What we know:
Order of helices and strands: HHHHHHHHH
Number of domains: 2
CATH topology of the largest domain: Serine Threonine Protein Phosphatase 5, Tetratricopeptide repeat
Function: Seems to be required for the assembly of the photosystem I complex.
Keywords: Chloroplast, Membrane, Photosynthesis, Plastid, Repeat, Thylakoid, TPR repeat
Mean pLDDT: 84
Family: Belongs to the Ycf3 family.
Radius of gyration: 19 Å
Helix content: over 70%
Low-confidence stretches: 175-180
Distance between the termini: 54 Å
CATH architecture of the largest domain: Alpha Horseshoe
Structural class: mainly alpha
Shape: elongated
Subcellular location: Plastid, Chloroplast thylakoid membrane
Membrane topology: Peripheral membrane protein
Number of helices: 9
Amino acid sequence: MPRSQRNDNSIDKTSTIVADILLRIIPTTKREREAFTYYRDGMSAQSEGEYAEASQNYYNAMRLEIDPYDRSYILYNIGLIHTSNGEHAKALEYYFQALERNPSLPQALNNMAVIRHYRGEQAIQQGDPETSEAWFDQAAEYRKQAIAPAPSNYIEAQNRLRITGRSKEWEWRKRNIRSK
């Protein structure tokens, strides 16, 4: 039985009903509906911390989904699972793949920045300040890219840029965008 049919949560049940109605109204193929069901079940399992089940559902959705935009969100969620499991290299691979299909995915850019920042902190703990600065610089670049399309969504990223002294270029760009 698909997870979407097992939900005990009334919000999940409501979401499932609304999604099912939309799938009936919007013209979709059987393959698209099946891909969406796997995706939805993956999100449900992921929200409950059932990462193995979520991954399996996402991989099944990827097998069926052909739309690059929709695939980008599946790839992004697989990246989230790898991030949660501490598999940062794998997570970055999935975030890159998601961005190849959908360059307007600031959450992937922000997560890539967080991973790079974490690696910078690890380099400091290992006594390698030069490497840490390189990681922090990369993190700052990804943060700037994430902030650009939706500045109000990434206040913490903006604060991190200010704290680390890497916000000057961003502040200049932000002022020029506002003046146009």
